[in-house]
Design brief:
By secondary structure, the chain is mainly alpha-helical. Helices cover 57% and strands 0% of the residues.
Length: 107
């Protein structure tokens, strides 16, 4: 017979078990850097060497308050907006309209 713990036997497990997370600081930085360059979340996951669903899981853990993943969940929206700004800036300066702003003809 099992001893009585005053609750579920699962409540006294010391080890949560399961596979450890692949989350590392270099992987998180790779995700943020790719997003800051204007890449998609899929490209960011590929640059970190993990699947897209893994990155979504990391973000979900961070949004739920897990201290290991919270910095990533905070950095991703900022990097995404910075990437969109950088991409828009690059598109503007790579366009034929550049001559209107600089006075130099591109072609």
């Amino acid at each position: 017979m099992f001893p009585r713990f005053g609750g579920s036997i699962m409540a006294v497990r010391r080890n949560a078990g399961g596979r450890p997370s692949k989350f590392t600081t270099p992987d998180a930085l790779a995700v943020v850097a790719e997003l800051a360059r204007g890449g998609s979340l899929e490209a960011a996951a590929k640059s970190a060497g993990v699947g897209l669903s893994t990155v979504y899981r990391w973000l979900d853990h961070g949004r739920r308050g897990d201290p290991r993943f919270t910095p990533l969940a905070v950095a991703v929206p900022a990097a995404t907006s910075a990437g969109k700004t950088a991409l828009a800036y690059h598109r503007l300066w790579a366009s034929p309209w550049r001559s209107l702003f600089t006075g130099k003809r591109r072609f």
